[in-house]
Amino acid sequence: MLDFSFTEEQDYFRRMLKDLAKDELLPNYTKWDREGITPRHLWKRLGDVGITGLRIPAEYGGSEADCVTTGIAAEEIGRGDFNLTYAVMLNALIGEIIASHASEELKDQYLPPLAEGTSIFGIAITEPDAGTDAGGIKSTALRDGDDYILNGEKSGISVATEADAFIVFAKTDPSLGNRGISAFIVPSNLEGVDSRGYEDMGNVAIGRGSVYFNDVRVPANHLIGEENKGFAQVMNGFDLSRLLIGLQCVGAAFQSLDETIEHVKTRKTFGKALATYQGVSFPIVTHYSKLEMLKWQAYRGLWLRDNNKKHSKESASVKWLGPLYSQEAIHECLLLNGHYAYTKEMPLEQRYVM
Questions:
Q1: Which residues, other chains included, contact 217 with Cβ-Cβ below 8 Å and sequence gap of 6+?
Q2: What mean pLDDT comes out for the span 202-213?
């Protein structure tokens, strides 16, 4: 039997997030984006309503929510402030990795503040010469007594300038290729850790940048799971994060379309509302339909993950088409809203360069 309905709890959660996005995020989205800062108090606010701890077990202060519920959070927060969707996606990915693989000591130390939204974590995989090819990373973490000596550069890291700690993936046995990668929790205040922010065209409020590790002594007990098992940890997590990224984009695009629909219903040219012209209504319907298809593909992937079924195909599809379809829809909204849409006072410009 096919069932496309959400549970009563999920419907309530969605309504609550819609109100939060409308009342607390949308009114300030452009301001925060122009300032280019990550409003840390909002991560705490998201923690208060359970968003930063969705994939963290209840015993560590999390909500222990399923993946579908996490997707709802990504979509609805995307409507209010695309930058803040990183609190959903990063914490879901990082929470899963720590909860599934780390020692009890690390779980006790790092999961509660992560769930509360009082601690911001980044995930450091990408390097100047290794993106999706995670096995091509060059950073090393070599054992030295009770520590690992970490060296390397990570690039394109979200919250690089704001993170209190990173999950860093480095080679503990370079001779093994991707089978020699391990994961570590690395506090950003350790000696030898440095970061540099980028001047990005979009998403400036998430503090994207490069992180440098120069002879950083990482305590051996900060190894996550077994040595040389980090590659499998992150690849499994990618399937979740790709689905969430798609829904983040869909949320921003749906909000843009909803705002545009209200605009064309009231804006008149030659005595008629813009919405009465097929050249206006047809593109809106086209983009809405494409986003609906993509949204349900994403939720199907999340449902498959919740039920321990293969979902890599769905994940890759949503990650590829989510940003593409969403940007196309937002571009149409820019055109239909006229010259006002190109000002930084409206959120369409920021959403377009997300």
A1: 144, 147, 148, 149, 150, 190, 191, 192
A2: 89
